[in-house]
Design brief:
Blueprint (H helix, E strand, L loop, with lengths): L12 H26 L1 E5 L2 E4 L3 H7 L2 H31 L4 H12 L6 H11 L6 H8 L10 H29 L3 H10 L3 H12 L1 H16 L3 H6 L11 H11 L3 H37 L1
Helix pairs in contact: 1-13, 2-13, 3-7, 3-10, 7-10, 10-13, 12-13
Length: 296
């Protein structure tokens, strides 16, 4: 009973039931399967031995895993440092109204419509020095570039490819945040004689805090799970230069058929993503709260 002594209708929960069932089959059941594999040594389909936390200990002692984790963290942080400022700048430069705004939105969003494996194929051709525009242009300028033979070139190519593919998502989120700011704020800024930087610092950036939080979390989670693009472009090479965590996991599970260590690694992988997202979310919330307190 609520304050007005009227009964609360609980029938709406039945509408949520199909969603809960779908989540159970698509997330919870596979997760429990992974947990089951992570504590067993699967010798054959008919024979399994319980090993407890043995696979978790083995995974944490894996030097190749730690190297892949370092590469993954470096790549994900680089993605955030490049795509977030670039997406904000792109959103600020986009027309606010009219047919130009619609046209620019369509053009900006085009790269988001391309499948991940096609993106890798595009950049695989684009980076070639014989027929690729990017590789041939660098070769014409006397710059030695070979993403198949140089670890640095391969890593930078994967980074630029990801920036090209996903910066429009950040830009679209920021554009939506900018369009939600009432005109009264800009009118007050013009009356006060505020500069463009002051408008960005004290009006636009604080009002975009929510969408920026979403952009940071989405891009971090997605970049931390990147697999298809570098696999198609470089195959994880040269050497292990672009072998990130997801590809290392696939090699463990599919290539070597080590289902126990792969399952344990999958759970650790999942917890790492949750931990970093939790830290990023709380840090951004704390920064936003401090900013509001200073403004008040």
């Amino acid at each position: 009973m609520n304050a007005t002594n009227k009964p609360i209708n609980q029938k709406a929960w039945w509408l949520v039931l199909p969603v809960l069932v779908c989540v159970a089959f698509s997330a919870i059941v596979p997760l429990m399967t992974v947990v089951n594999y992570s504590v067993q040594d699967i010798i054959s389909p008919e024979r399994r031995v319980f090993v407890g936390t043995e696979w978790f200990a083995a995974v944490m002692r894996d030097d190749e895993l730690l190297e892949a984790l370092g590469r993954q963290l470096g790549f994900s942080l680089s993605v955030l440092l490049v795509e977030i400022p670039l997406g904000i700048a792109l959103a600020l430069s986009m027309p606010a109204k009219g047919w130009k705004s619609s046209a620019v939105l369509v053009v900006v969003a085009l790269s988001l419509l391309i499948p991940w494996n096609v993106v890798g194929t595009i950049w695989q051709i684009y980076g070639r020095t014989d027929i690729g525009l990017f590789g041939h242009a660098l070769a014409s300028m006397g710059i030695e570039y070979n993403y198949t033979g140089s670890a640095t070139d391969a890593w930078l190519t994967v980074l630029v490819m990801d920036v090209w593919h996903w910066t429009p998502l950040v830009a679209l989120l920021c554009f939506a945040g900018l369009r939600s700011i009432p005109d009264a704020y800009y009118q007050a800024a013009r009356i006060d004689g505020a500069s463009k930087f002051a408008v960005f610092r004290y009006i636009q950036l604080p009002k975009m805090r929510g969408v920026l939080m979403i952009a940071v979390l989405l891009r971090f989670m997605d970049s931390f799970m990147i697999y298809t693009e570098p696999f198609v472009l470089t195959g994880g090479g040269p050497g292990n230069a672009t072998t990130f965590l997801s590809q290392y996991l696939t090699q463990k599970a599919v290539g070597q058929f080590d289902l126990g260590p792969a399952a344990a690694f999958s759970l650790i992988y999942f917890l790492i993503i949750l931990l970093f997202c939790f830290v990023l979310y709380n840090w951004m919330q704390r920064v936003g709260t401090q900013q509001v307190e200073v403004e008040q």
